[in-house]
Amino acid sequence: MTPPEGEAAHFRALESLYAHAPINRLFESTLEVPGPGLARIRFLVDERHYHAAGAAHGTSYFKMLDDAAFYAANSLVTDRFLLTTQFNLLLTRPLKAGPVTAEGRWISGQRRVFVADARLVDASGEEVARGTGTFMRSQIALAALPGYRTA
Length: 151
Known about the structure:
By secondary structure, this protein is α+β, with helices and mostly antiparallel strands. It has 2 helices and 6 strands; from the N terminus they run H-E-E-H-E-E-E-E. The chain has one domain (6-144): Hotdog Thioesterase (Thiol Ester Dehydrase, Chain A, Roll).
């Protein structure tokens, strides 16, 4: 099989970067970057993510939404790692154990600051949360990060 080139190679390298991030050892999840400005992450939420009242804690919502929006934005940047500078959350339903999909999409910006949003969809297809974030270019080269492999 021929290795991906160009845009596709960047998308696969972002997926690899996500898989290698130490935080993702705590969350059963996989990233897919289907195209520029888009990201989809499939999570499996379980009782380890619950607060005392028996539903997913807000930190789990933030993680899923931030990751999806971040990777949607970073899919448009091939040289630098982006940093989250601000993120707004709207939590609309309690989230129980099961599969969850975080769908991220780029909204605007292509130079220094990027805006992207994301939504969480539970196994029944209901939206349970959404968020919007701003992301800026860092001084960190993607190619220097463990896991980011374009070839």
